[in-house]
């Protein structure tokens, strides 16, 4: 029943930025949950049964009912556990639509070229994907300016939906920099987003979620899965 916190279980994979998004939402909303690490080379029956269409993580299971796809899961958490904490999505319908627009932008324009940097087989390919990522970050900087209205987060004074979505990428910023040689949150290029990262990593929720995603482990993981890349740990 919406609004009641019953059994909550999260199926995920430690390196996935999409899993990190869901964990962030649960911590921000102060929802207790059981985390189950999945081996995506030997997927559990629970995962296959819970997400029969994609067979991928993350999957949230609330009171025995599975919810799939990161954005859908986060919106569900925001509504199902409303009494547990501040709403992530704005109450105003227009502001909510704007947040969903930029959410789609992050997943359609920022993440794909950023992930392809890990899959690139040549320096030339990596340079092209880096160029596309920088272009996407320029637009996202403007999006942050408009959504934050001069405050610290996409959600204003408090963390919101877009902060959670982009926040899942934060542990991968240094590994991507080590692999590509590029800092996509460079303060000289995107000062607002660079300052946002500094504020975000200082949040209690971020500290709790990111503690197992250290730079060296993520770099090692990225090199192991090349050229498949992040697709092995995303929603597919």
TrEMBL record:
* Gene Ontology CC: one annotated term: cytosol
Q: Where is the GST C-terminal domain?
A: 92-228
Location of this chain's protein in the cell: Cytoplasm, Cytosol
Q: Which SUPFAM superfamilies match?
A: GST C-terminal domain-like, Thioredoxin-like
- What domain of life does the UniProt record list for this protein's source? Eukaryota
A Pfam family matched by this chain, by name?
A: GST_N
| Identification of the protein by name | Glutathione S-transferase
